[in-house]
Specification:
single chain; 322 residues; alpha+beta; PH-domain like; 9-stranded mixed β-sheet; 6 helices; 42% helix; Myosin_TH1; TH1 domain-containing protein
Length: 322
């Protein structure tokens, strides 16, 4: 009996001893794995820091004197990023673009910044109009050109008539500001031409007759009725004002400089302020709605003067000077 009791006690003790040995063995094994993994993580972390320092050093070398350059690093080639650095590289490029934009804007006098913002606004829609992208940022935008004596060939009486009519319209239609004005050749529904003064205010677009003391022709077109504009991809000063009444306004501005971008920019700003939808079309061949019939305007450059003529079918030929 004593022998069997001793064997049973021995077996119970062995199970406890084996459990303790297994526990410490597993613990030792896991500690070795953990130490190996932590060593690998430390090596990886050190290598990542090394790669980051190397890449940042390349950027520092490439952009060292960028603040003193004329283009603020626009033409500098960025170092090729490592596979894991692509998100960081994109973030750094975004930061550089914002810094470069800030530096460019800081060069512009404060009184010219609102006009510069307008030019950037128009550039979003006129990217296909190469003449605008090439010349607009060097031009001086004056807005209400008909308030300037040189637009009237220094004839003071014409200037006084224009100001008088606009003051009367300001009281009658209750607009607050004249945004843009210019002399133009307007095409009517019979494809005939009339000399007009086109005036854009913060509420209406007017057509005035400069030969009759700037007498207003019909009523102003409310901006709410205007659904968009169409201009050409070339240097032509042609603008088509699309209306919800399906009777578009077509005119060609009298100017040696490109004023299309200025008209478009002010129109976009007004429509955005009104939260009203609109479209800007930049096309080689501009379409127009006349008496609910759609027609295509074909540009023929090289003429001596501006001339609209009926073409084949429903087309309209515009001869425009270069």
């Amino acid at each position: 009996v004593s022998l069997f009791q001793l064997e049973r006690k021995r077996t119970e003790g062995l199970n406890f001893v084996i459990t303790i040995i297994q526990k410490y063995t597993r613990s030792w094994h896991q500690q070795k794995l953990f130490a190996r993994e932590m060593a690998a993580i430390r090596v990886q972390r050190a290598y990542r820091k090394y790669r980051t320092r190397t890449y940042v050093k390349k950027l520092n070398d490439a952009f060292r004197n960028v603040a003193n350059s004329n283009d603020f690093g626009k033409n500098i080639k960025w170092p090729a990023p490592q596979p894991g650095f692509v998100p960081l590289n994109n973030k750094l490029k975004q930061m550089h673009r914002r810094w470069r934009a800030y530096k460019i804007i800081s060069r512009i006098p404060s009184e010219l910044r609102p006009t510069f913002e307008l030019k950037l606004l128009a550039a979003e829609y006129l990217q296909n109009r190469t003449s605008y992208i090439a010349n607009a940022f060097h031009q001086v935008w004056k807005g209400d050109y008909l308030s300037l004596p040189e637009e009237h060939m220094n004839m003071q009486q014409n200037l006084n008539n224009y100001k008088k009519v606009m003051n009367e319209l300001r009281v009658k239609d209750k607009f607050s500001q004249i945004i843009f004005s210019t002399l133009a050749t307007k095409m009517n529904t019979s494809v005939k031409m009339d000399e007009r003064a086109i005036v854009m205010t913060d509420r209406f677009i007017y057509k005035l007759d400069p030969k009759k003391h700037f007498h207003i022709r019909k009523t102003g077109i409310p901006l709410e009725q205007i659904t968009g504009l169409s201009v050409t991809t070339g240097t032509e000063q042609l603008i088509v004002v699309h209306s919800s009444t399906l009777h578009d306004l077509v005119f060609y501005m009298h100017t040696k400089e490109d004023r299309v971008g200025e008209f478009v920019a002010n129109f976009i700003k007004l429509k955005r302020k009104m939260s009203s939808p609109f479209v800007i079309n930049v096309l080689r061949y501009v379409s127009v709605q006349l008496d609910k019939h759609e027609r295509l305007i074909n540009i023929v450059p090289g003429g001596d003067q501006i001339e609209f003529k009926k073409g084949s079918g429903n087309n309209i030929t515009l001869t425009a000077p270069i």
